[in-house]
Each structure stands twice: as structure tokens, then as C-alpha cells.
Amino acid sequence: MKKSLRIEDFSRGGGAQLTEVVIDELTPLPPPYDKVEERPGWRSLTEEQQGRVACNLDGVVAVGLPKPQNKEQEERTIRQFTLGLRKLLSRENNWTFLQPLTLSLDYCAQCQTCIDACPIYLGSGKNDLYRPTYRSEILRRLVDKYVKPGGKLRARLGKGDVDLNWTTITRLYELSYRCTLCRRCAQACPMGVDNALITRELRKLFSQELGWGPRELHEKGTVLQLEVGSPTGMKPHVAKDNVEFIDQDFSEVTGLEVSTPWDRRGADVLLMHSAGDILSWPENAAAFAILCNAAGISWTLCSEAPGYDGVNYGLFYDDIQLARIAIRHAQIAKKLGAKKIVLGECGHQHKAFLAVADRFLTGDLSIPRESVMAFLENLVFSGKIKFDPSKNDFPVTLHDPCNMVRNLGIVEPQRRILRHLCPQFREMTPHGVDNYCCGGGGGLALMSQYNFTDWKVNVAGRMKFKQILEAFGDQPGPEVKKYVCAPCLNCKIQFRDMFTYYGARERSGLFFGGLAELIVNAMVDLEEPFITWEEYY
Amino acid sequence: MSGFAWHIFAFAALGVSSLVVAYRTWVLIRLPIHLRWELAPIPHEKGKGRYGGSYLEDYEWWTKPRARSRISPIVYMGKEILLLRGVWQHNQSLWPLAFSLHMGMYLIAGMLLLLLVSAILSLAPSPPYVLHSSLRIASVLALGGYLLGGVGSIGLVLKRALDSNLRPFNTISRYANLLFLGVVCVSGFYAWIDGGDSVPAMSRLVQGLITIDPNVTIAPPLAVHFVISLLFVLYLPLTDMIHFIAKFFTFHQVRWDDEPQNERMERELRVLLAQPVTWSAPHVGADDDRDWTGVAGARMSDEEEP
Question: Are B129 and B276 found together in one domain?
């Protein structure tokens, strides 16, 4: 075990673990989370797991790749990986990101300016393995050595060497899921080099060439969404039934008539929720129904698969799956004759559909698409609904989903709403486009096999948890209930795991939820509080 | 060297280097349009770039004219290039040496430009004070450039060797780049000291080169500096030290490219989407007959044919 890692170490050691996460070396948290003896345990891998799957990186397993059965399988994988490297650099197979990838591979000055921007590197207590530059440099050296002409000679002459073998490939696969793709490192890079993009390209190589992808993102993610309509497994009639139940339930709770229109042709707004919200945070779906109806908006949900689930996990690992889902979403909206699509409270859905997939949507598939933040801001300040901010007179802070804020520049609409409706709103430090990722970005929030959740809540989400606690530092105790506004499904999943792990609700009075819920909570027409402080787990 | 040897060496080095730089730039220009991958802050977003906002904050943004600032990206890049703002903000321990190296290069480039202008001015009747002033400024730039460049490059070699953050990522070629640059600066500094100000001699050399004068003579220290510098000019485009070119693309064509799809893009995209896909994973479903459109537009499994 060693903490100081060299690039060359990565391909050595076979099945042995390369490094470890030392819990005592992690960035300290504020009280009452600073006592070592009170920390929840960290699950170790069982002997059975260690015998079955590759666990030669950091003692954590996210992807669970089965160990090779024989030497032939190893060699076949190495050949295929090399082929994938070539495709990654080919115009035909990877026009989608060839220019950004080429620039990031060829022009990194190795100044390490980006490393202190990475919340995972910081949270881990600066473990070398989690430097944004570490995995990028390995891929860079592999490309130089095994793809470019004269590479092996150049590697020997001092350009930098690393060997390609089964160990390198399995460790790289696992390491590509130790990054949340938050792109804080890219923002810090003076050259514009993007290590998060390199990580995503690496995931793409594994997925599109070797057929390797985390089960939660692939089989139970994009494949399931394309087969039945949603990674939740909900088929169209189930989604409709669930929303109908939510409408009934919240009609009783609020005394308002909560109703959700489905498949209304020619509606002004086709609202695309993340179906995970319908299942796990139904108050979010209900809040939208209340707001849209109260403002008299012509709106609809769509029951044609996958129109009722706006998520697109392809963004995290696979261009083909990304394109397939985005094209289906656009086709559905076109068929329904919707004037615009409003993207629900989900960061990666925003990034995928507003920007990344924009250049897949040629011709009449280019349907106007709008962020829910702009939509809600217009709704709040339209004067169609009366609000009483004193109803929200409790401490509120805002989490900025990376894909919505840093990656798209949607920064202020949600803040203008919170400043208007929440008297005790306060910012975290840093915030806006400089925010820390929740720790579940890049698809990590969805992945929970083996002991990966322990890593996510202890390492990946550590800087976020720390800054949330600091934002409420003036009222740290559980007697004051505090609301972390997280307008993103994946961030909420990560907060659920993290707050549960640390007992943050009981120890600090921390709750989390979406933006629409806060808006509804401030409505004058609502007799009872919409936010009950009980429903958010 | 005598006769035209200096001329041949100098113009060949400059010519080959320019060709390689042009080729590498052309390679970057020729890369196809990519999917959007912008990153805030985008300074051309007028009124919003300051805090990292974009046009996507606007209600029904597609109905509104885009307000773009032409000045803000120039100011942003000016601070980035001249002051290394990113390094200052995120890596202050590296900034003094990195700034020293880069400022040294800028001063040397300024000196060379002035020498060229002086040489051209001296060919035609021009007021002597103009020539004199430009050479005096060039002298200051040369001294400052060699000193700062030398301190920066040699200092960075030492920092790379001693700093535990940088050391694991060092390669021989990275040391070689910095050392080579250091030798250029040190040899220039020595020539400047040896001649009590080498700039007038350099000016005569430049004039001799551009007038193809076969009687060009150079004192040994300056000749050594000249040879080393020309070798560096040949070496430079083979390295990632030409990141000053790449930086244009990483910022303007990746980080700041938030342009929604338009007709010109669509024409290019249609060509790209008609390319074959040969990724091997089973879920991709690539075969000889399917292009990107065919693969990405694959129907859902339960959908019926129209």
C-alpha cells in the first residue's frame, strides 16, 4: 500500500490493490461529524467478492468487472482496447468529441493547476489516484505509445511510458468511475484542457467498443429506458397510474385540485420530469401540477415511452445511447405538437437535451427546449400566483447542479426566486459556477454496488457536505430545520444517501428537496405548509 | 559561417518551423464540428458572462436576440495570456516562475519585432531618432526577456524536480523543453553582456539577413546564441509548447462554443451523420449498412413499423 503514486505504477502489480482510501486522512468535517470514533463504518469487500470481480484499484468496487477466465480472454481484451483507442481518435467513429479530445490529450502542460479544483481529490485528503490528471495521463501515454506512429520508441526516449495489460485496463475502467464529470478541473485549466471529458471518453471506449458499462447506467439505465420507457422500469401505464395517485394524494393534503394532463396535443408546454421524482419525490411532481394549473398554463405530460422520463444516462458514458434517447424525446415532442419542451428539475437532463444532443437533432427535430429554472422564474414573477415569503421563513441554501450551472450557465433564475421567496436564503461557499459537485455527478449517484456508496458519501460528496454544514454554521443544531434546495434528481439521490449515512437530519436538522416545492410552500392559496419536513427520505 | 550560410540556416529554420506550426494548426482546424461541450463562464454572454450566466437563463431564449460582447472575450483572453490569470487563481506557487517564463518570451518576441521594424526602417530614409529609439527599447526588451525567460525556465526545471506535486508527471521530454528554452535565454544573456549590448549587432544581423547581404558577420557569443535559437525554433513545433495555438481552439471552439444549431452546422452534421459506425459493442448494432443516423435513430424494441 502506498499513497504516492507514479504513472508507471498503474500497470504493475496484477490483481494487487494499487492504493487505499485512508479514512483518517480524509478532509475533516465540522462538528459533530469530526469525531473519528463516531464515524459510521466503511464496508470492506468480502472474500467472495474479491475472488469474483476485479478489485485492484483502491479497495472500492463500483463496476464489478468479473475477473478473466484465461490468458486468451485477457489478450483479446487488450487487442480490443487498442482498437477502441484508434476509434476514439477517428473522424468516423468519434466526430462527436474528436476536437475536444485531441486538444486535451495533446496540449496538457502537466502544471497540476487543476488538482486543487477537484472535490474528490480534496475530499480524499489529496490521494494521488484521484488527481484529475492521473487517469488522463495514463490514457495520454497509452494513446502516444500504442496508437501514434513511432510511439513505442518515443516512450523509451522519454515521452513517458506505461504498459498496456489486463491490470491497466481493469484499473482504468474502475478509475473512470471515480470522477463525477463536474468539470471543475476544466474550469481551472489555463490551457482549456478538460480531464472530465477525457474520463468520459474513456468510459465511452469501454462501453462502445468492449461493451462494458456499469449495470445501473447501461442495462438498468439506457437499455431499460429504450426498451420500456424509463430506467425506473415504469411502463407508460404505470407512470400514468402513479401520477394519478400523486394527484389524488396531494389534492387531499393541500385542499387544492391537483390534476395532471396527459398527451394533450398542441400544448404550449411539454413538461419532462425525471421519472425518479415521480417514484421517490412525488411532492416535486405534485408541486409542478399545482403551479402550472394555478398559473393557467397550457401544459401536458407525455405517456409515450420514454417521454415521461427525461433522464438520459447516455450523457455519462455512451454517445450512441445519448443520441438514441435524445432523438426519441424530440420525436415524441414533435408528434405531440408541443410548442416547447420544459426540462424538469434534473441537471444532466438539461445538459444532455439542451446542449450536448443539440447537434444530433437536425431538421424538424430541433424543437425549442427550455430550462425549468427560466420557466419557474417567469411563472413566479408573472403575477399570476400570489406568494407570501414569510411562509418560507427558515434557513435555505441552494445547491448548484454542475450540469445546469457550470456546464450551461443557468445561474441566476433560481437565485432570483429564492431571494424573493425565502427570507433566510444564504449561499454556500463557493457557489454558482464555482460550486462543488454533490458527489453523485457523472452517474455515480445511481451506482451503489459493493461498497461504492461508502466511497461516494465519504469521499466524492465530502466537500459538498462540508460546505452545506458551513452554510448553516450559524444554526448547526437539529432544533432548527434547514432546507437544502437541490433542483436535480441525481443530486437528491446523492443527498439522500449522504444525509442518511451521516444522520444529518437527526444531528443537524438538514432536509433537502426541489425548488418547485419551496415555491408552492410560499403560495398564499395554500392553507397548510406544503413542506412538511417529514416526507423527504 | 560565411557567404549565405547564415541566410540559408535562418530562413530554412524559420520556414520549416512555420510549415510545421501551420500544419498542426491546419490539423486542428480540419477537425469536425463536435457536440456542444461549453463551460461557464462564457465571456461573450453580454451582461451575464460576469457571473457565468448564459442565454439559456432567458425565458423562451430562442425568441430573443442574442446579446454578445466582442470586448469581454478579448479582455478575458488578454488577462489569461499576459497575466496567466488562471495560474494565479488556482496555482499561486507556480505563478511567479510561469509568469516569468512567459513574460520573458513576450519581451523577446517584442524585441525581435522591433529589430525587424528597425531593419526595414534603416533601408529607407527615416529619422535617426526613430531607429535609435527602437534599438534602445529593443535592448531593454532583450535584457528583460533573457533574464525573465532564463529565471522562469531554469526555475521551472528545478521546481518540477523538487515539487512533489509535479514530480510524478515529469518526463525527460518535459525537462528537455524547459532546459532548451533556458539555454536559449542564458546564451542570449551572455551575448548581451559580452557585447555590452548585443542588440545593435543583432539589428545588423537581421538587416543583413533580410537584404541577403553575403558579408554578414557575427561575434562568437552572438553566433552561438543565434544557432541555439534557430535550433529551438525548429524544435518548438514538435512539442506541446505551441499550446498558445491550441488555446485558441480549447477556448473559442470548445469552452465558449454555445452556438445553437444553425443551417451551416446542419449541412456539416448531415455529412458526419452519414459516416459509417464501426464500434464493436453489441448494443451499438453497427453493421456495414448503417451510418450514424441509422444507428442513433434505432427504433425502440416495442415500436411497430409505420
Answer: no
Chain A partners within 8 Å of B57 (Cβ)? 371, 373-374, 409-413
Q: Is B284 in CB contact (< 8 Å) with chain A?
A: yes
User: Given its phi and psi angles, is residue B84 left (phi above 0), alpha (psi -120 to 50 degrees) or beta?
Assistant: left
Q: Are residues B161 and B66 in the same domain?
A: yes
Mean pLDDT by 10 residues, chain B (306 residues): 83 96 96 97 95 98 94 96 96 97 97 91 80 90 97 97 91 94 97 87 90 87 95 95 94 96 93 94 90 77 41
Q: What is the pLDDT of residues A82-100, one digit of tens each?
A: 999 999 999 999 999 999 9
> Do B51 and A411 make contact, defined as CB atoms within 8 angstroms?
yes
Touching check for A97 and chain B: CB below 8 Å?
yes
Nearest by CB to residue A358, choosing from B36, B297, B298, is B36
Residues 6+ positions from A77 with CB-CB distance below 8 Å: A68, A166, A169, A210
Rounded to whole angstroms, the Cα distance separating B272 from A349 reads 24
Exposure string over A487-500, b if 16+ CB within 10 A, otherwise e: bbbbbbbbbbbbbe
Q: Which of A154, A108, A156, A170 is nearest to A134 (CA)?
A: A108
Residue B165 to residue A183, Cβ atoms within 8 A: no
CB B54 within 8 A of CB A409: yes
Residue B274 domain-assigned (yes or no) = yes
Cβ-based contacts of B34 with chain A (< 8 Å): 95-100, 359
User: Do residues B221 and B269 both lie within one domain?
Assistant: no
**Structural domain for B176, as ranges:** 5-255
C-alpha dist (Å) from residue A382 to A385, A417, A514, A526: 8, 12, 20, 18
- Establish if A117 touches chain B: CB-CB under 8 angstroms: yes
**In terms of Cα–Cα distance, which of A443, A437, A444, A439 is closest to A457?**
A439
